[in-house]
Amino acid sequence: MSRRGSKVFDSYRSCLDWLFTRRRFVMKPGLERVQFLLETVGNPHKCFRIVQVAGTNGKGSTSTMIASILVEHGLRTGLFTSPHVVDFTERFVVGDSRVAPDRIVSIIELLKPGADKIEATFFEIATAAATVLFAEENVDVAVVEVGMGGAMDATSALDSALSVITSVAVDHTDILGNTVTEIASKKAGIIRTGGVVVSGATGSALGVVRDVAATRGARSVSVAEDAKIDRVSIISTGSIFDLSYDEAVYEGLSISLLGRHQVANAACAAVVAHELSREGMLDLSEPSLRRGFAEAGCVGRMQILDRRPTVVADVAHNPDAASVLAAAVREVFEYDSVIVVLGVMADKDLEGIMSAISEVAELVILTRPSSVRAADPAELAKIAEKHRLEYEIVDSPGAAVARALSLAREADLVLITGSHYTVGDAMISLGIGDSL
Questions:
Q1: Which domains can be identified in the chain, with CATH numbers?
Q2: What residues contact residue 11 under an 8 Å CB cut-off, 6+ apart?
């Protein structure tokens, strides 16, 4: 590992200001820049094993559950996820603790000279920073969530011991393609030659994953076909279900993450634990598996922020995720009516998201989160009118939430969704989570 460089930033805020300017560098093909960054600090990613997690939806929750299971098995575990909801430090976890802001400043200062030299992107720097942190913390294994795509994602510069692909749906069409099969092909780029891939994909996406695995001599495991989920009970505090995989049968597994879709993500995490055990990376224990599920929590995933009225935040940002969210709201909660606070990025399928939200919304309060990519609420209003949805336009997510709360009765539900930015801005306005 390289030594710390001279002090460059006078605060965490100034460090983030510099880092966020790197977003002006668009995603570039190739792994050369992140590999260069890693070399400048002594290739820290070679100090630990890596589980890489790709997918369209569910990869953040699945990554969190995998990491929690590993922690409960006594492994020193790192977790790198993206994007964050409220604060940048959410992306970096060791054990059950987020990294301290001053630690991030120190690591970014170490990487800055190399990053400036090659015009590294925001995500390339964040990925390299995670590897520095995990090496310094002597982790045994790191669970690393892919940012976007697969083979050309910065995280693919880290040689994984096991690949995971969660559900695949249409999103980021400008980069990944317009069909599920095209997108699955990009996601399957993380599969390593001679490795193992655990896939939560179904249908044509699963077929693509299997084909890519076969061409690379990798062993492919399908959660949908090789594992069996039984007796699912969905309640307002989580889910209880039975799971069978290989020769193991688990009765009454319990997770605190809300929604039926999280049961599928949990099954994927359990299968990953079995495969890591098969690969000799942990000594699988049923009590540790159960504790891992019980302890796992994920910011902004059907997170209950308040009661009376019930306030729920979820980062669903594409039609598939929004449809799953709508179904979960109907199944998990009891309410008189739903008021939705919605802010979406302009490059998303606005029509598809609005169509899904219309399944539960009585009123939609349209807003613009703090991102230059945010969709104009006036454009969202045109789509709301098309779906005959009652709507209002409020400038900011914080003000939109305040308006929703002023209208909601105790038995109503306020749902904040559409983007990580929308949820983050709303949580900050409510004083929930850390922010600067």
A1: 12-295 (3.40.1190.10), 303-429 (3.90.190.20)
A2: 105
